[in-house]
């Protein structure tokens, strides 16, 4: 079996058969065909097939159809906008309850309270409520309170009844009033009044709680305490 | 054939006979590719006769085959020029399109279509290249449109041809 004497030219055989060589290439290849038994034998035996490949209407139709399908398959998809892609991912054409966006939304709604519950506690310091209890018999006793902590003061007023009005004033030792309530009525059945002073930025020092009658303004009791 | 030509020039009649048998066969093939089946035999014989008359006295500066090929090209050129002048053909080549219908081997055609379908199913550029060639695109244009180099183009064609040939031979067709 013969072999091609010049494979560089021999590779042009089918291009020649399909009339795809320019003039210089065609002349060079034809000269090669004159000297190369292998290529001439190949070309001669394939001649009828090459003729069909070049010009037969059915061959052309088949090839054109295949080429068109191939070109369509290779054509890039039209570029989809970001919004469209997002919408397609979030809202695919499925049953309403299977749509991921709806699922995400429901999960968020249900998970939010749990998420909030898992949030770390604010780091601000929680200070305990402190209370001072004054009985009427020891009205002048001095108590010690923690400066800055909420303060609940309970004091006894003999004869006080539920719903009876009193005037309560809290002042520093220098006379500055820091709290006043002209209609203090918060007494229980045991004549104990409860005064919520809260966080008032107590400074260290001495404080006085003065209780007056609401009508005449006469001072009934004075309780004193120290804040440290 | 160059060796045969040397022997023929030196007086070897057997070499001369063999030389011109081979030359006529090749000229016939080349002429058929250029001008079609109708006049290829006349052209090939006319070119061979000219070569035979002159080759003994010719100085082959580029070799016998190149000179002989030049003779054939000149004959083909004259033929086509005459045809153009007569208005019978507008352009050179393509003996197939617009030429008188030649006999088509129906079996070969059926098998070839089957083989082409197999080749198309196997993928690759062959069908696309062939389609562009059918539309008249030349090599450089095909390469540009398909996005391949000229070397890849020739390799693709060669592989496609080999697959077709093997497929046809597998169906008992000589190709």
Descriptive notes:
The complex is a heterodimer of chains A (228) and B (175). Chain A has 228 residues and is of the alpha/beta class. Chain A is 38% helix and 24% strand. In chain A, the strands form two sheets. A five-stranded mixed β-sheet of chain A has the order 2-8-7-4-5, with no helix packed on it. The longest helix of chain A is centred in the middle third of the chain and has 19 residues, at 100-118. Chain A is rod-shaped and about 140 Å long. The mean pLDDT of chain A is 78. Chain B has two domains: 1-95, Orthogonal Bundle (Rna Polymerase Sigma Factor, Chain: A), CATH 1.10.1740; 98-175, Arc Repressor Mutant, subunit A (Orthogonal Bundle). The model of chain B has no long low-confidence stretch (mean pLDDT 84). In chain B, helix 1 crosses helix 2 (13-35), helix 2 (13-35) runs antiparallel to helix 3 and helix 3 (37-54) crosses helix 4. Helices cover 72% and strands 0% of the residues of chain B. The two termini of chain B are 25 Å apart. Classes of the chains: A alpha/beta (228), B mainly alpha (175).
Brief sketch in words of this structure:
Chain A has helices at 7-10, 13-17, 23-35, 37-45, 47-55, 57-74, 82-90, 100-118; strands at residues 130-134, 142-145, 151-156, 166-172, 177-184, 192-198, 205-213, 219-227. By secondary structure, chain A is an alpha/beta fold.
How far apart are the termini of chain A? 116 Å
**H/E element sequence of chain B:** HHHHHHHH
The outline of chain A comes out as rod-shaped
Number of domains of chain B: 2
Major β-sheet annotation of chain A: 5 strands, mixed
Beta percentage of chain A is 15-25%
* Extended strand count of chain B: 0
CATH superfamily of the largest domain in chain B: RNA polymerase sigma factor, region 2, helix turn helix motif
Please state the structural category of chain B. mainly alpha
What is the oligomer described by this structure? Answer: heterodimer
What's the count of strands of chain A? Answer: 8
The two chains with the largest interface, and their residue counts, are: A-B, 41 and 49 residues
């Amino acid at each position: 079996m013969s072999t091609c004497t010049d494979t560089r030219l021999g590779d042009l055989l089918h291009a020649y058969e399909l009339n795809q060589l320019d003039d210089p290439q065609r002349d060079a290849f034809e000269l090669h065909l004159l000297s190369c038994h292998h290529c001439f034998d190949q070309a001669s035996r394939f001649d009828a097939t090459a003729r069909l490949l070049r010009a037969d209407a059915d061959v052309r139709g088949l090839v054109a159809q295949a080429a068109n399908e191939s070109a369509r398959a290779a054509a890039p998809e039209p570029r989809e906008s970001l919004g469209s892609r997002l919408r397609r991912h979030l809202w695919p054409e499925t049953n309403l309850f299977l749509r991921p966006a709806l699922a995400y939304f429901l999960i968020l709604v249900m998970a939010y309270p749990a998420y909030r519950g898992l949030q770390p506690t604010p780091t601000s310091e929680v200070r305990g409520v402190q209370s001072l209890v004054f009985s009427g018999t020891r009205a002048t006793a001095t108590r010690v309170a923690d400066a800055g902590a909420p303060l609940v003061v309970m004091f006894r007023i003999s004869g006080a009844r539920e719903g009876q009005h009193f005037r309560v004033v809290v002042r520093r030792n220098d006379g500055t009033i820091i709290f006043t309530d002209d209609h203090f009525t918060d007494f229980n059945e045991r004549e104990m009044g409860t005064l919520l002073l809260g966080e008032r930025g107590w400074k260290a020092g001495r404080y006085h709680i003065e209780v007056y009658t609401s009508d005449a303004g006469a001072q009934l009791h004075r309780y004193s305490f120290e804040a440290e | 054939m160059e060796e045969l030509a040397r022997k023929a020039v030196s007086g070897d009649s057997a070499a001369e006979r063999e030389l011109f048998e081979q030359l006529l066969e090749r000229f016939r093939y080349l002429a058929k590719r250029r001008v079609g089946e109708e006049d290829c035999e006349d052209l090939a014989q006319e070119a061979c006769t000219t070569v035979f008359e002159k080759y003994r006295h010719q100085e082959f500066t580029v070799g016998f085959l190149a000179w002989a090929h030049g003779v054939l090209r000149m004959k083909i050129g004259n033929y086509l020029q005459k045809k153009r002048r007569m208005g019978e053909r507008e352009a050179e080549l393509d003996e197939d399109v617009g030429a008188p219908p030649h006999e088509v081997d129906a079996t070969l055609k059926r098998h070839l279509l089957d083989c082409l379908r197999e080749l198309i199913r196997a993928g690759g550029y062959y069908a696309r290249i062939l389609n562009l060639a059918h539309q008249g695109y030349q090599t450089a244009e095909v390469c540009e449109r398909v996005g391949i180099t000229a070397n890849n183009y020739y390799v693709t064609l060669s592989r496609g041809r080999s697959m077709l040939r093997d497929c046809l031979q597998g169906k008992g067709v000589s190709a």
